Amino acid sequence: MNEVGLGASCPQACIRVYVANRPPMEPYEHLESVKPLTQGEVQQIAQHTGNHWRKIFNVYAKFLYSLYSSQQALVVNLYESQRWQDYRDDILLQVNSRSMLLFSPPTFKKSGPDIHIIMGKQYAAQLGFDRESSEELVILDGDFAICKRKNLIICPYFDYRQLSNIKIERLIALVQELWKKPS
Q1: Is the peptide bond prior to 36 cis by the omega test (within 30 degrees of 0)?
Q2: Helix axis angle, 41-49 relative to 51-70, nearest 10°?
Q3: Positive or negative CA dihedral for 38, 43, 44, 50?
């Protein structure tokens, strides 16, 4: 199965976030592969699709900007400005972003330091990561679950109310924990 979504594959550690829906506009509704975004495309999607996608992009940018700011050795292309908004506008899901927003299910076929993040408990359950019945999944609390063997984190949906700044910090700590684990 091909990966389908936005962003760019990367030779180093990559953040792969999985979401159940796609932006309801062309060409995203009919993508059959991973498409890197271009300058201004995040704003264009947010403008044409409403608040829902704007929130997803904002939370994703805040998360990645904070993560990469805390991991200086892993930073590639961290925007010179000290604002997550600039990261969102100039780097998020573009060719060298080291991030993906995927509409296809996780495959876990690639070995290495990639981190897989599923947005939302309901979508995770649809993908077979039911918090009650999955033997591999460790439930950390009502918001987060982790499967270290697969470098997988289940977190709240990328929305300000569900994934607040405090929860973004928790997500960053979980990603850092997975990056530090022995291979």
Answers
A1: no
A2: 150
A3: positive
